[in-house]
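Pair request: fold both.
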Amino acid sequence: MSTPPTPPRGPGRSPGLAEDLRISIARLSRRLRTLKAAEIGDPDEGPLTLTQFAALAALERHGSMTPRELADHEKVRPPSMTRVIAFLERQGLVRRSPHPTDGRQVVLGPTEEGLAHLAELRRRKEAWLSRRLSELTPAEREILRKAAPILDKLSRST
């Protein structure tokens, strides 16, 4: 059994920076994901799960998709996506339309209610984060302001 390689060190590289960032970003991401969403529709159905939210957000972001395309995009098996779509349809958040070129298929898209629901969830998360940011010093907020584009650049790298 071999030992893992030692991370490179050099100018601008603090020995624990990668680990510190990974842990901090994961915690913040988890905290934002687990903020309680407003319950919608049938009270027995409850709020959206992370998978349901991700599927609805993917349809908003990428436009109409077939159920198979959505399952592939979200890296879930088609039967699981079928259940997600059924829930979102029951809640009135997703609609089915005929496929423009293949009469055997349908395409999915968010409804106006689905778009409004996504907007509300995002508004609540941003409000929570704004409250947390207001607890920081002006100097700490300025550091984060400067770090935001750098973190975005890291998130887009392959």
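--- second member of the pair ---
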Amino acid sequence: MKRSPIKKVIILVSILAIPGFLFFYLLPHFAKNRYKSLPIFGEKVVAATFHSIKGKKIPDTIYHLVPDFKLVNQHQDTISWKSLENKIVVLNLFYADANQQVANTYIKQLADGYAQKPLVKFLSLSVDPSDQGKIKDFAASFKAKEGKWDFLAGDTAQTYPLIRKGLLLDVIQDDTKEKPAFIFSNKILLIDNLHRIRGIYDADNPEANAKLEDEIKVLIAEYLRNIKDGR
């Protein structure tokens, strides 16, 4: 028995419509469910407060936060979380007299790549208090763009607690030699707009660098999604 022209049209429309439905509705839905957020580093504490998801009460979690700070950059501007409000921060440690500047060389490449993206900022924090008088020339040697990449220095009474307790990194001043040397974590941190550490990477590891580059993009997507959702 032959199908009527109307039935043929209905079947054809259905065949054409189903792929569009899958692409524009189901796939984005599944993709959203597959989205994997970056970890949050540091100590976590379960709070006494709750939030609700689909009517179910979920205990709130208090995450480790990098505390506020006030340090002077190469332009004699004071940098703090207030000046970095709603920014994603990539941070590393350094000191100007080190023989190698592996992390800063890599940060230079990253900062140049994000020169036109104001959401991402770069901080290089010195472990040497004597760098307070050197960071202007040192930053100039890397052609650090003002407002994009800040070199910070300060007294160890302020910087070392920030590094050890806030950034969860190690630093030791070695005074056994004629010229002071510093042993510190050769790591790069990825910090979100809520001041939580979302990634820790070995500065001299190409695989870790590639992971950092990918996870900066993931964190940007998370930030934009949270804004869209009103969070």
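Observation on the second member. The first strand starts at residue 44 and ends at 53.
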